[in-house]
Amino acid sequence: MQEKLRRLRLACLLLAAALLCASLTVSTVQAATYKKGSSGSTVRTIQTKLKRWGYYTGSVDGIYGSKTVAAVKHFQRSNGLKADGICGPATQRALGLNTGSSTSSRDNDLYLLARMITAEARGEPYSGQVAVGAVILNRVASPSFPNTISGVIYQKGAFSALDDGQFHSVAISDSCRRAAQDALNGSDPTGGALYYYNPAKTTNKWIYSRPTVCTIGKHVFAR
Q1: Are residues 110 and 144 in the same domain?
Q2: Distance between CA atoms of 136 and 182, rounded to whole angstroms?
Q3: Less packed terminus of the chain by CB within 10 Å, N or C?
Q4: pLDDT average per 10 residues of sequence, the chain (223 residues)
């Protein structure tokens, strides 16, 4: 009799543990999505990023209200995402946030960097792909630009691939993913360039005033 009771107690404990794990999993999934009515530090981070990039004009108060919904929709429309005003995993990744899954902040940086290199330099030699990634990271380190990879990439007017939709429409290539990893590991074929351009395509006269560092493939790199 005592043995049966012991086994019953053990079974109950195992069932309770399983239910607790399931509850925690559901809570984690729910916590990874932010929408109207949400609040807290992550909402403040979302508002701060959107405000820095010109999408949000309201107060950074950590409350996901109508203005935050409108700003998120604007960001989503501008970046090829479903414009529902909900900041789920896909939108969080595009913002450069940790989604709460096994994807780390560095993984998000790698994803964004590889996607931009693919959009801007997929037809360039490998060193030119690394160089584009290095320019983005050099901007992160410069006080003249936003201090995060997502901030640099989404800075308005900074990259034509965001304006013409290539950033989200072209699949990341293996070489561009490797180039992004090499750039994150410190490789910089440009020696510190902050700009690059294709002389055959650019109509920006100002860029020609920047001191040239080197030319790799079709891109000229400058400071």
Answers
A1: yes
A2: 13
A3: N
A4: 54 47 40 86 90 87 95 86 90 73 67 93 96 96 91 87 80 93 95 95 91 96 96
